[in-house]
Design brief:
Elements (H helix, E strand, L loop, with lengths): L1 H10 L10 E5 L5 H7 L1 H11 L3 E5 L3 H9 L5 E3 L2 H9 L4 E8 L10 E6 L15 E4 L5 H13 L8 E4 L3 H10 L4 E5 H11 L7 E6 L7 E5 L4 H13 L3 H6 L18 E4 L6 H10 L6
Parallel strand pairs: 1-2, 1-3, 6-7, 6-8
Antiparallel strand pairs: 3-10, 4-10, 4-11, 5-8, 5-9
Helix pairs in contact: 4-5, 6-11
Length: 294
């Protein structure tokens, strides 16, 4: 019986120092209203797991979420790799919990695309971006700024000397290129390949991909460490064990896996991941000598 007694004691977490509510935030990939809706299952499941109200904020820009987590106002944040690296460099006491994956067996990782309208014959490669109006996503976006900037530098283009626009979201960047507000631009792979097409905002074949980055580390969920350890551990376990389509069905949050939304994209859920996976992003920062990296 002594074994039973200890496991029962271990499962009885001391919640006396836990806060009364928990704040989750995500970097903007689309507009705030649609993101809030898409995180509803995640918020409901986490609230059920930790037994307290969970509030979700869709940040309007990357700087906002970085500052909020540095100040300790956001407990759990879904970042892009670069914005996570920046938050940590600026003093946020955070750690990677897990990274989003498309299927339970997939490895985290994605790509940045350089895009233009399919009808443009004058743009077939990255070097053709010179002298064009370029759409980036946000100065702290990995696939919407950092990797594109490194790509441009590698073909002799200094983005600071070109006409550039920060569109704010990956959807806005791709749609601005399609509308002709920008001649060329950047966005992450699935935004161009499927997300906008499924939403009906873009027709298949309207945009062409003329450049693809090297593989980028997966996007991280990062937790604030200056909270009670028992809460941090409970949330960490939730993210990698239950924050997925299979887990949400088991919890009664989703009826079926087929139409279960976990985060804003089509991700199945999260797998364990660590800070060292972002050393590649840190190296790209060094290589580009970008002022945005500080």
């Amino acid at each position: 019986t002594s074994l039973k007694a200890t496991s029962a004691a271990a499962s009885k977490v001391d919640k006396s120092k836990w806060p009364t509510k928990f704040i989750v935030c995500a970097v903007p990939s689309e507009n705030a209203a649609s993101m809030t809706l898409k995180y509803k299952n995640f918020v409901d499941a986490l609230s059920k797991e930790i037994g307290m109200p969970v509030e979700f904020y869709a940040a309007t820009d990357y700087a906002g979420i970085i500052e909020a987590q540095v100040a300790g106002r956001v407990d759990l944040a879904f970042y892009g790799p670069f914005s996570y690296v920046l938050a940590k460099a600026r003093g946020a006491k955070i750690d990677v919990v897990g990274s989003a994956v498309a299927t339970p067996t997939a490895k985290p990782g994605y790509f940045s695309y350089g895009i233009t309208k399919s009808s443009r014959a004058d743009v077939t490669k990255l070097a053709d971006f010179k002298g064009k109006k370029i759409c980036f996503v946000d100065p702290a976006s990995t696939s919407g700024y950092l990797y594109p900037n490194a790509g441009l530098l590698s073909v002799g283009i200094d983005a600071t000397k070109e006409s550039t626009v920060y569109a704010g979201g990956h959807d806005s960047s791709a749609l601005s290129v399609n509308r002709g507000t920008c001649d060329v631009g950047f966005a992450y792979d699935t935004m161009v390949d499927s997300q906008l097409i499924e939403k009906g905002d873009l027709k298949a074949g309207e945009l062409k991909v003329v450049w693809k980055s090297g593989e980028i580390a997966g996007s991280p969920m990062a937790i604030r460490l200056d909270m009670p350890k028992s809460l941090v551990d409970t949330v960490k376990t939730f993210v990698v064990k239950k924050a997925n389509k299979t887990g949400f069905v088991a919890m009664g949050i989703c009826a079926t896996e087929a139409n279960c939304q976990v985060i804003e994209d089509k991700s199945w859920g999260f797998v364990p991941y660590s800070d060292k996976e972002y050393d590649g992003v840190r190296q790209v920062c060094e290589a580009t000598k970008s002022s945005k990296c500080r």
